[in-house]
Amino acid sequence: MIEIDKVESTPGCPNPFQVNVEVRGHGQISGLLTREILNGLNSRSVLLLPEESVVGFLPRAEAEALNELREIANGLDIKRLGRVAVLKEIVVGLFRKQRHYPMECVLVHRYGPVPGVLIETTAKSPIEPDAPLYLGIHLNFRDQEQPTKKLGFSSINLLHSLEYFPQLLFQRYFEDVGAIFDSIGGRADLSRTLWWAKWIETIIAESVNSKLVTIFPKSKRDGLQEQLARRRREEHPYQFLRAAYARYLCLHLVNILYECLGFWSSNKYRDHLLNFRAEYETFFPYETISGAFNNDPVLSDLERIFDALEDGLKGEPSDKLQVDLSSRQKWVTQICEFARFVWFLRTHGTPRNLEPSRTYDPTIANVFISSHHAVPVAKTVREELWTKTSDGRDSQPEVQLMYVREAAGTPFLGAIKGRIWLSDGLIAVIPASTQKFDATSADYKWIGEEALAALSLNKELLFRSPATSARHASYLAVDRGSKEFGGSDFWSHKSRRLEERSSGPCKEYN
User: Fold this and answer.
1) How far is 81 from 154, CA to CA, in rounded Å?
2) Residue 20's Cα: distance from chain center in Å?
3) Is the peptide bond before 102 cis (omega within 30 degrees of 0)?
4) Is 76 left (phi over 0), alpha (psi -120 to 50) or beta?
5) N or C end of the chain: which has fewer CB within 10 A?
């Protein structure tokens, strides 16, 4: 057993499953919480680590177990098979009870299932506090030369390994995607958004599509490879259809996000979703596909998300994108929330009398105006900004002035969220007088909350106020528990903290 002093999610990382661990007497190690599928651990409570990261602190029994695994791998022809195929060969042997070593386990790696050594610790998982934390140590062949197989990838070995619990593999990958979607909507500035969106694309390409292309080949194959692919499809039809549909949906949402940021985007994933049943009739009977959508809760939820998004983008802007989910999978909920987020950007991200094309144009800066609309002085400042810049068109560089000034019925909170997120900066108008048109006194907590939201997203912030308004600065000491605005949970992401703005990047994805 390894003694652990501290476990925490890596600060600033969009994926909460990326954690740092303080090993007593050794120091800090970092890794990704993953799933273990041989021993039935039903949680993401295993810290995935390459063997070189644990050199120097493994107890004797654990070190001997790792050596036995290494000896099994060395007994296979790595130069002929390649390193990935060797790992898949051991995985299949473990599931078929043909290979054994102490503390054996099968870990979900980005390249699929890999054999490892499962080590107990004194800590609990930071994601699931009731679950014990384990260390999952896997082999690393990067230092070994493979002149005949540089990548070491074998479709045959992968197809054999996908016989066992493919749903848990895909669940781990989409849990990572869902967590990053959650972070983009909650605490990403422009640079982080692009980096994290590309990270999602990488996960889907390396971990999801690399499995699906062997199950759903684009061209017909003969021999054992085709037989194994057909057998896997027959064994796990719902799981592979679910992964294929989720892949298209996630990439479709990423492309909508790119469009809102003014980058080139593609409609091909939307087309795949619209024609999904017909496309996959090449591999399954119509009854199987229809049964999957009717009977698999996750697949049904994913289709509901896409259908609701389609309806929401076609019709008149409404106050919400309503989807009733039944699967109770957190990653499905996160994908649904991100669909709602990009729908808000598309439908409510631009004030109605402004041009969405200017909002999405990367050469035009979006500036959000935060002010109290019922205060005469604030109204005068806003009008001056519009008049002197011709609504931002005469400024250098050109800007678009964003605000929330719609009629009753507009989802104001969502509009504020989306427009601050799309903005490059925020001007907070703090007038000297708090008197409103009706002679009552104004409350500036909303301006403070909007300023806090801008700061949390790394937006530029400027307070525009007469010198005599210093006495009103106390309004900007934001009450983080404000019920009216949602307090610190304004963005519905409890992980958003200002200190994360200066945090470093994440470790390599595993």
Assistant:
1) 7
2) 19
3) no
4) beta
5) N
Structure tokens that stand for 510 in this block:
């595993």
H or E element, residue 509: none
Going by C-alpha positions, the residue among 370, 394, 393, 364 that lies closest to residue 382 is 370
Q: Is 368 exposed, middle or buried (0-12, 13-18, 19+ CB in 10 A)?
A: buried
Q: Which two tokens stand for residue 103?
A: 């503390």
In this structure, the number of other CB atoms found within 10 A of the CB of residue 190 comes to 15
Q: For residue 62, give both structure tokens.
A: 């654990």
Q: Which residues contact 166 (CB under 8 A, 6 or more apart)?
A: 211, 232, 236, 239, 240, 243
Q: What is the pLDDT of residues 95-128, one digit of tens each?
A: 999 999 999 999 999 889 999 999 999 998 888 8
CA dihedral (39, 40, 45, 51) positive or negative: positive
Take residue 115 and report the two structure tokens written for it: 């054999």
CB–CB of 335/249 below 8 Å?
Answer: yes
Which residue has tokens 């909507």?
185
Residue 389 to residue 424: CA distance in whole angstroms = 17
pLDDT given at position 283: 94
Assess contact for 83 and 138: CB atoms under 8 A.
no
- 46-50 vs 104-109, strand pairing mode: unpaired
Return d(Cα 334, Cα 174) in angstroms, integer.
Answer: 10
Q: CA–CA separation, 39 vs 263, rounded Å?
A: 45
**How crowded is residue 363: how many other Cβ atoms within 10 Å of its Cβ?**
8
Phi, psi of 464 (to 5 degrees): -110, 110
* Nearest to 58, CA basis, from 127, 118, 104: 118
Neighbour-count burial for 206-238, b at 16+ CB within 10 Å, e otherwise: ebbbbbeebbbeeeeeeeebeebbeebbeebbb
Q: Are 243 and 162 in contact (CB under 8 A)?
A: no
One-letter amino acid of 322 = Q
CB 248 within 8 A of CB 276: yes
Which H helix or E strand runs over 293? helix 286-295
Is the distance from CB of 131 to CB of 17 less than 8 angstroms? no
Sheet-wide strand order for 460-464? 399-402, 365-370, 425-429, 460-464
What stretches in the chain show pLDDT beneath 70?
141-154, 188, 315-320, 373-374, 377-378, 391-397, 405-414, 432-439, 441-443, 464-510
- Residue 363 pLDDT: 81
pTM here is 0.81
The answer to whether the CB of 284 falls within 8 A of the CB of 383 is: no
Contacts 24+ apart (CB under 8 A), 120-124: 120/1, 120/2, 121/1, 121/2, 121/3, 121/4, 122/1, 122/2, 122/3, 122/4, 123/4, 123/7, 123/21, 124/7
pLDDT of residue 436: 61
